[in-house]
């Protein structure tokens, strides 16, 4: 379902409103129109500023829609600990290579994966040495990032990675590809223009004016509203070969587009 919003401003330098007239218009509802509804808001108000003597009506038309994402980003990895840094690194590398090989067998392409982070951190016990801490080992963390348009494979990839040794899935993030976002934007621009024209006709008719042309049109940047990355824990699945497939839901994302039009009226 598409939801529309609009706000409008009337300009006419040939008129001089007193404070009393301004209050009168406001109270009568001609100056401000705002119906009570949770989904639609339409505001109209007069502002006396224009570079010439032409009457103008400024309208912002909006269109919003909900779409399913077609792109997924998954961050997952392995964390290993040992008293020796070399041993921790060797164990980590073995597991990570196993994970990457398993994902490739499952169909993940080379250009869909990249290393997102790699750290070797010393572990210190401050209960033994309160000042500097006693060195008791090292933790190696290696994470890869999956960027793919195959959103339906997300659950399978996570299950394969965890079964192969991944013990850290940082987050899952769904979004739109540039092409899909551009296609949606074109549709929303048309809807927003229709919305602006409809509301301009309503306001002009209510004020006894007639739309005779268009002075300017400007299009705002499309505004996708994406949910933030979803944290994902794997502790409950570790070493459980019979665990059920991980449920991953893409949901829908809200996309909004505004168009600003200045109409000429008489």
Distance from first to last alpha carbon: 35 Å
State the shape. Answer: elongated
Secondary-structure element order, N to C: EHEEEHEEHEHEEEE
| DSSP strand count | 11
What is CATH's topology name of the largest domain?
Answer: Dihydrodipicolinate Reductase, domain 2
The level of helicity is 25-40%
CATH architecture identity of the largest domain: 2-Layer Sandwich
Structure description:
It is built from four helices and eleven strands; from the N terminus they run βαβββαββαβαββββ. It has 266 residues and is α+β, with helices and mostly antiparallel strands. It has two domains: 3-67 and 178-225 and 255-265, Dihydrodipicolinate Reductase, domain 2 (2-Layer Sandwich); 71-175, 2-Layer Sandwich (Alpha-Beta Plaits). The strands form two sheets. Strands 1, 2, 3, 8, 9 and 11 form a six-stranded mixed beta sheet that branches. A five-stranded antiparallel beta sheet has the order 5-6-4-7-10.
